[in-house]
Amino acid sequence: MSVLELRPNCEACDRDLPPASAEARICSYECTFCSDCVATLLQNVCPNCGGGFVPRPIRPVAAYREGTGLVNDPPGTRRRSLSYSAEEIADLVARLRAVDPADR
Ligand SMILES: [Zn+2]
Ligand SMILES: [Zn+2]
Description:
Blueprint: E1 24-26, E2 32-34, H1 35-39, E3 54-55, H2 86-96
Antiparallel strand pairs: 1-2, 1-3
Bound molecules: zinc ion (2 copies).
């Protein structure tokens, strides 16, 4: 089973997004940003894939079922950062922000 990677930071502003953070947002590829960057900089357009964002689910710490929980599937440790320029991001956001994610 492949497990959602709980990435440790916002790709745009680099703030920490620990597993219990209510501010973490993800796209379908697990690209991870904070709610502030999604609302302002990105306007619900993932700069890596063009998709929309949803709140990242919070994984329980304990294993309520065998093999689950952070005790078995800990958060990722590799910090990511954007590989596109500010201009490239602004261009994609301008193209897609008015299009509902379901219609992209
Ligand atoms: Zn951010
Ligand atoms: Zn994405």
